[in-house]
């Protein structure tokens, strides 16, 4: 069967309600008057990865469980508007949703509706096997119940990546993903010793490449046993929201990997894509395009930091 999908994104579809708050943590008060207001839009981790990959001209397909509800309609419309093929499997508990509190500096705090993670413990295997067989690579979100897809993806012979997000290095929920993937992304936010954690992932699992992102402090990359510190990239505009920056990093990194670039170059692409994401308001969805990404990478200095091209 021809592998005419570059990246199959599994899971992570949902809807966020964006609430701008005067500061984080939000001080206790009976009420707060907030601007620019409250916005509900489609876009969670898997959606953002799929958007980022599509903007970089990779043939992308997204599959997840969606409810027959308003939130599901928003997710379906997002994919339709951006030309991203979507396989929506029925979910009786409804489409995943969250509330994101966004501070003036772009930091955010997410509140996930755990009731939307209830439902079937198993996935219908037939569509997953069919899509996996047609894919060069699969990126698996850690949302329920996609852990059960990991053996199916392995059987199909596709390479795997996952994003553990703010894993603390100990929660057993994340371990099956961490140990099954060939490429692992995670945030360093909850790690006391990021180097120890990423080396442990590589030692116990399949991954030869592990990346711990740290926002403005760059990232720590472990590639074939070599530890590499990746500097941050200066955003091309004001930082207005950090939501989706890690997903954009993953999309940029995967773009480089699927085009045969070495790990350092992949990480540079990821850093550029992540920095771009920080300039996109939380009420919108947008990703860096292929031409823009390559131009910014070409303009990167020796240390890997973006420098605007001379006019």
From TrEMBL:
Classification via InterPro entries: Carboh/pur_kinase_PfkB_CS (IPR002173), PfkB_dom (IPR011611), Ribokinase-like (IPR029056)
Keyword field: Kinase, Transferase
Pfam families linked: PfkB (PF00294)
Protein name (database record): Adenosine kinase
Carbohydrate kinase PfkB domain mapped to chain residues: 39-285
Coiled coil stretches, renumbered: none
PANTHER family in the record: RIBOKINASE, SUGAR KINASE
Keyword Kinase assigned: yes
Top-level taxon in the UniProt lineage: Bacteria
Organism: Streptomyces toxytricini (Actinomyces toxytricini)
Region entry Disordered, spans: 105-124
GO molecular-function terms, A-Z: kinase activity
């Amino acid at each position: 069967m021809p592998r005419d999908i570059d990246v199959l994104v599994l899971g992570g579809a949902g809807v966020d309600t964006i609430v701008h708050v005067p500061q984080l943590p939000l001080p206790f008060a009976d009420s707060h008057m907030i601007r620019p207001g409250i916005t509900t839009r489609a876009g969670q981790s898997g959606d953002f990865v799929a958007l980022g990959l599509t903007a970089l001209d990779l043939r992308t397909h997204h599959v997840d469980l969606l409810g027959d509800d308003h939130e599901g309609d928003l997710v379906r419309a997002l994919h339709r508007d951006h030309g991203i093929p979507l396989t929506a499997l029925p979910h009786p508990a409804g489409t995943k949703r969250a509330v994101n509190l966004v501070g003036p500096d772009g930091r955010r705090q997410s509140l996930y509706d755990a009731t939307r993670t209830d439902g079937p413990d198993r996935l219908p295997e037939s569509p997953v096997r069919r899509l996996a067989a047609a894919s060069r690579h699969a990126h698996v979100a850690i949302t329920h119940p996609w852990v059960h897809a990991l053996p199916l993806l392995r059987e199909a012979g596709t390479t795997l990546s996952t994003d553990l997000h703010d894993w603390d290095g100990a929660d057993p929920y994340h371990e099956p993903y961490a140990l099954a993937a060939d490429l692992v992304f995670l945030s360093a936010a909850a790690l006391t010793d990021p180097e120890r954690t990423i080396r442990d992932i590589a030692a116990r699992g399949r991954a030869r490449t592990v990346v711990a992102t740290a926002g403005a402090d760059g990232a720590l990359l472990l590639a074939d046993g070599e530890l590499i510190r990746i500097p941050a990239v200066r955003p091309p505009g004001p930082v207005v929201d950090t939501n989706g920056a890690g997903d954009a990093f993953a999309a940029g990194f995967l773009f480089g990997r699927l085009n045969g670039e070495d790990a350092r170059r992949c990480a540079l692409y990821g850093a550029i894509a992540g920095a771009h994401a920080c300039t996109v308001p939380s009420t919108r969805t947008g990703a860096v395009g292929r031409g823009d990404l390559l131009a910014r990478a070409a303009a990167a200095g020796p240390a890997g930091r973006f420098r605007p091209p001379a006019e």
